[in-house]
Specification:
Blueprint lengths: L15 E3 L4 E3 L1 H31 L6 E6 L2 H17 L2 E4 L17 E6 L6 H12 L4 E5 L5 H4 L3 E4 L12 H17 L6 H20 L12 E5 L3 H17 L3 E4 L1 H5 L10 E7 L6 H10 L5 E6 L2 H4 L4 E4 L6 H7 L1 H14 L18
Helix pairs in contact: 1-5, 1-6, 2-5, 2-7, 6-12, 7-11, 7-12
């Protein structure tokens, strides 16, 4: 395993050694471990603006939401699709930023509240969607870690993540911070559905999961030989499947894709084989029998099966079972289920000799237009 060691402190690549554990860590691992504390810092900052955002969504001239995002933030937008739809009965569509760019007449946004999600707030095409919304006199919300960013200046309401600077290239705490911010908006819309009690419990839950998954990360070693990783999940878990695939791919370099199981069996299933790993996200403790039957069609086609779940029926079919706590609401389970994939991505990168804090071709801020 190619790992660059240093004697202590932080070297010029950002790696450091934790004295109490005498092991090397990276900026990515520091950020992964910091997520629970970051969520605790974020909530009191985000909640007042989340209530303003909820009031905006209640306006009589708003009947649906359009979200613009890229990368990990796009997976946060998928989370919002299912969360707002299931808990607040609000239809959510994902914007097509290219249509809002130069040479195009932006689509009509009548009846929409438009949300931009960007950790840096500097993605030009996401900013462009909010600019078009303002030109059409539509209400706008920005969810960002930089309240002074270009995206924030185009928004009527800015929900600041407040998780602190994220120094690793691959997003961790800004992603979970975005999910928490979205949950805080829904908590303000529908308090019985998304409760303040569970929002308050998120930091400790995430901290415990991060410590557990990192301590046992050698369990993910069998995935290192896979030539392809396929990640599956439905509903809220679909957003987690997409984010898990992104993390596994961008850090390890192993091609990874996220699918809902029905989409996978409509053709892409044929690409699975003995050199493929399947990573299942089914965070709840009672998986629908029809969904279990679909998973039973998928698993035997793969060489290595991992599963993140609180359901013994799902875990029993996996060579790498990753047990989540029982009793989590679905919106909490989908958030928590991201953490094992972050730890797995780190482990696979270590095994494959990837410089985790300088993944090939990646930068902290990607400017797309």
């Amino acid at each position: 395993m190619a790992i660059h060691r240093c004697q202590g402190g932080v070297n010029n690549r950002g790696w450091s050694k934790l004295p109490e554990q005498n092991v090397l860590t990276t900026l990515f691992e520091h950020e992964l471990r910091d997520q629970g504390r970051a969520l605790a810092r974020s909530l009191p900052i985000a909640e007042p603006a989340a209530r303003e955002a909820a009031a905006l969504l209640r306006r009589a001239d708003v009947d649906h939401v359009v979200i613009a995002a890229r990368g990990s933030s796009d997976n946060a937008a998928r989370y919002a699709q299912y969360l707002l739809g299931s808990e607040a009965s609000i239809s959510v569509g994902l914007a097509t930023p290219w249509l809002f760019g130069p040479g195009h007449s932006p689509p009509r946004l009548a009846g929409a509240a438009v949300v931009g999600i960007s950790q840096s707030g500097r993605s030009p095409d996401v900013v462009g969607v909010l600019e078009a919304a303002r030109a059409q006199s539509r209400p706008t919300i920005a969810i960002t870690n930089d309240r002074h960013s270009p995206l924030a200046t185009r928004a009527d309401v800015v929900v600041e993540l407040g998780v602190g600077e994220e120094r690793s290239v691959a997003a961790t705490k800004t992603y979970l911070g975005s999910l928490q911010a979205l949950a805080a908006i829904v908590a303000a819309l529908e308090p019985p559905r998304v409760t303040a009690d569970w929002l308050a419990r998120l930091p400790d839950l995430v901290s415990e999961l991060a410590d557990q998954q990192l301590a046992a990360r050698d369990r993910f070693d069998p995935l290192a030989v896979c030539r392809l990783l396929t990640v599956v999940g439905r509903g809220l878990d679909y957003s987690t499947a997409c984010e898990s695939a992104l993390k596994l791919r961008e850090l390890s370099g192993i091609p990874a894709e996220g699918f809902s199981p029905p989409d996978l069996i409509h053709g892409p299933l044929g690409a699975l084989g003995r050199e493929t790993g399947v990573w299942t996200v089914a965070a709840g403790e009672r998986t629908d029998p029809a969904a279990l039957k679909t998973l039973d069609r998928i698993r035997p086609r793969a060489g290595v099966a991992a599963a993140v779940s609180a359901d013994p029926a799902v875990l029993s079919q996996a060579q790498i079972p990753i047990t989540l706590p029982r009793g989590l609401p679905p919106w909490v389970g989908a958030l928590a289920a991201v953490v094992p994939a972050q730890a797995a991505a780190l482990r696979l990168a270590e095994l494959r000799g990837v410089e985790v804090d300088e993944p090939n071709g990646l930068h902290k801020v990607t400017l797309t237009s």
